[in-house]
């Protein structure tokens, strides 16, 4: 009754009619919006976004915007933390409803514009506001698919983020967001486009620089195309023809090397010492923490809590406040500092490793030697890199159960990769030894009455390792102690093999033989029960480099493989995958050829007559068997950097046959094999195509051709000449493949190569 009378009164007074209806309509709309929001479970996010947008224009009162931002952050951060601490499953709207709603109503676009507008008023903005802006964006990136790609699509926004790294208080959040964005960006960012990059990097403290390496790792590495077909040599050669100019990654490497003091600071980061944690529960603490510290932002936030007193202020951001008052702050174990340092070193070593493999390799090598990277790593080896109490039960993350992704495991693998890149075909490899070990190499050469290697003579002794053992010797020690199923075996073998690669050095081989390396390798291949193809391949390759042209190594081999059963097991391992073992086969063939020319040496004659391995390879039927299989397991379309060695090993067998005027015999044997298998022309046409590809691939690559010459001690001119003879078009030539293919089966696969 009262309500009706009130309306009538109002209706009789026109001056108040309009305002009363608007009030009723507004009330109705508000009530409807709240009801819709409640039913949809939007938690008021659309309304907060609208208020944030309206309050974040330039020259507006940003305190209001910050209020709305903190309300949004409080709802999004809970979902983000649950994502980090769980199994990182694919983000779905049902799992993270608040983040999904935020993105659904354009929150990311609002946030990007809000971020730029806020920082345009830098004289009035506070750090907490910027940090909260970054946190909101980061939460969306990790919880909602597509958000990171949306941010990555705006180059201006990405470059703008780099300007925020000048502020130490916002550096952490900015770096983590940039890292995620660059990880999904379609085109690699050009570092030279970042305003005042040199000044920015030089302004970083050591912790910031280490963090920045996570970003750099994305910008200097060639992108992984993710398609096996693209990894074939045929596809790579075609790609190189299309892209004759340096890639963006290569340009970025040059940009980094031009920054004054950059490499020196990375060397200091890689070699600085860390306080060791003690106590019986160290390992358990370490495992408990890194099972969920999978995210760099969380780890760094915890480290800030452990090392800094929280700033108590009225403007303290919501996420900082909750962390600072958490009892977690008082429960951080001392071992966290070690894990923190290890994770940084992983990124630093990765950047150095990529630069070592780039076009400026010699420049980088010179700087790493000058700044004593190797001696510094040697001093860290026992206390940090390969501590006695390493974790035995590796904690695995993600969907790949075989993923070794704990900080310590990643650190060890990256360390071994760096050693491999450092030693591979470079004279600085002798920096891995100490002065006493260098003297030992000199003594070995003197005893054998052979000249010292020039690189050894030229080694600057002030830059080699300190202490009782050099880095290579320390690596050999832990290598021999490694369990049979260890994931480190592969990388350890690769690192040691790289020391031997290049021109064969008798002194280098004897240095390792005296330390029991050959017996260790044979144990792993024959007696350990190892079934990993990767590990076996690395041990075959290492064994080949260790034994090549070394009569003492073959004598030691025969002493260890002293029963028919052991020798048969060894052959079984070789034959189980010729792609993995062909480098060892090449070594045996080359060594046999050299030893057969040294029959005036009594020691050589004795080993030739007694060694079961040399006797086996001396039988022509066995060499032919290897040749058949090597030619048959590859073709032009499947050639990769991994299996092209099979082609070169088959060429070695035929080059040595040509030297002894037996090339026609081998080619005729291939022809007879084809007819016996009822595939006439198939084997020889395939080999013909492979050799045509070989010419295109190697004749324009000085580095690859030098490697072939150094590893085989056969001049590359003889390689080229032999291939030309084999590809000769004169069908009357007994050394041309064409002479052994009947006319109906000629050029069976010609179009495949041309395509």
From TrEMBL:
Membrane spanning stretches: none
SUPFAM superfamilies linked to this entry: ARM repeat
GO terms for cellular component: Cul4A-RING E3 ubiquitin ligase complex
Signal peptide: none
GO biological process, any: ubiquitin-dependent protein catabolic process
GO molecular function: phosphatase binding
InterPro entries: ARM-type_fold, TRPC4AP
Superkingdom, taxonomy of origin: Eukaryota
UniProt name for this protein: Transient receptor potential cation channel, subfamily C, member 4 associated protein a
